[in-house]
Amino acid sequence: LSFYALRYGDVSxxxxxxxxxxxxxxxxxxxxxxxxxxxxxxxxxxxxxIILGAILVVLA
Length: 60
Hints:
mainly alpha; 4 helices; flat
């Protein structure tokens, strides 16, 4: 889907959405696997780091 979005959308709009994809995955994991699997702290820290990096790229 990301290639489709890049093909038909503006790069400046699509790229930040692709970069925050881990956030969407993290939220889906939390919603669907609630109580089944614990999310490690390293995964949370990694997702936050990726999101902050995406924000810095957009603002730069």
